[in-house]
Amino acid sequence: MPPDFDQLTSEPIAVETIQQVATEVLETMFFTEAEPVACEHGWLASATCACIRFEGSHRGEMLLGVSPEAADPIAASFLGLDPMELTEAQRGQVIQELSNILCGATLSRLWPESKLALSSPELTSGREWPAEGLLHRCFVIPEGMLGISIRLAPQLTSQS
């Protein structure tokens, strides 16, 4: 039986998994370093954010926020472009792809035996992030800040 949210957040392995995945993905695919930091969320209101939903043996969503000063360097390094060459659309697409990569890698490590379907990532506003019920971690990268949150939703039960 999949763990519920309270079990997930009470296990240090969940936060450690988010940290490991974020560090590996950002270093290998985005050529930047990520260090966990204490959360101060004032920057989220202006962040480029993406939301990706998942369902199957677990149901919920992952939110990713990237501070404005970090979005261009991350997108440029992923695409192999100069930051001045980036378009708004490219920046958004890279943040969506980053959310997809982080979500898939994190969930597959948390629940390797689970069957999950991921939605297409959608750009969203940092102000839409719920304040509670999240497994959350903030990171500082050389260019700015990055935040990752996972929220589990109750499983739907079918009625006979």
Explain what you see:
This protein is an alpha+beta fold. The protein has one domain: Chemotaxis protein chec (3-Layer(aba) Sandwich), CATH 3.40.1550. Helices cover 37% and strands 26% of the residues. It contains four helices and seven strands. Strands 1, 2, 3, 4, 5, 6 and 7 form a seven-stranded antiparallel β-sheet that branches. Helix 2 (12-29) packs across helix 4 and helix 3 (68-79) crosses helix 4 (88-110). The chain is globular, with a radius of gyration of 16 Å. The mean pLDDT is 85.
CATH superfamily: CheC-like
The whole-angstrom Rg is: 16 Å
Percent of residues in beta strands = 25-35%
Total number of helices? 4
Largest pleated sheet: 7 strands, antiparallel
* Structural domain tally: 1
Would you tell me the structural class of the helices and strands? alpha+beta
Q: Predict the CATH topology.
A: Chemotaxis protein chec
Specify the helix fraction band: 25-40%
Overall pLDDT: 85
Shape: globular
End-to-end distance, in Å?
A: 21 Å
Per DSSP E runs of 2 or more residues, the count of β-strands stands at: 7
Oligomeric composition of the shown chains: single chain
- Top-tier CATH class: Alpha Beta
